[in-house]
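call fold(seq) -> tokens
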Amino acid sequence: MAAVLDAGADCVVSAAVGVVGLPATFEAVRRGLRVALANKEVLVAAGELVMDEAARSGAELLPVDSEHNGVHQCLRAGRREEVERIILTASGGPFRTTPAAELSSITPEQALKHPTWKMGDRITIDSSTLMNKGFEVIEACRLFRFGPERVQVVVHPQSIVHAMVEYRDGSVIAQLGPPDMKLPIRYALDHPRREQAPADRRLTWEAARNLDFEPPDYDKFPLLRLAYRAAERGGAAGAILNAADEVAVGAFLERKISYPAIARVVEGVLEKLDGATNASIEETLDWDRRARSAAGELCAAQPAASRV
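ret:
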């Protein structure tokens, strides 16, 4: 918080992990600053509050997440009222082709081997369960002000196409780039300019020769469906979803629960705390604490057969 209050900056990069970055980011938005947003939990947990405040203060939020950064670029091709839907791509993670019956034996070591991106432990597990993509659906709904029915997820194993926007005339505008965060970071910091990029950060057409797309398997990866449910509910549902998932992923990494139990714990917490509203950042953080407590209890209650 002190960095936002005292630095006198006109642009704040919000890259803290988790809801710990929410109060400082909200303060930057309240002050009308430009925010380069790399912390998806800000909009997952309190997106409606943050975007309402941005509309009041005139703050500009520029997404650093590669998918939302891609959407931001694609939206420059037309007017908002011409947009039919937003399409976010997902690599599918390491278990895209793994039979559902084998997921109960997945180990943390296996889940931490992402096929295309190098990331921290939690986000790597979330990518393997498609929960990370679910968070991105909520973030896209809040950031671009579209309902969840207009945000679609498509599995794209090569991670070359980061996002697409379909317009009402049937045109689909796609943003392509190598799976490297340097490009979206630079875009967010330089916007609206586009500065020269070095050759080693450019997409080669040899790498983009084959581009495959397929629908996600919601039955095998139920956390993605739960994220859509949270996006529809609004209020504190996103904060609860995020907190429950963080606790459940931590328990899986510590070998206290099985891989499929992550989804069971998250769904149980969402059901237990259904209907929660958040009128302020403080209330959002209170629901975050309640969800963590509930998730801890559900992790401890998992039957022995679910443990690894």
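The first strand starts at residue 11 and ends at 14.
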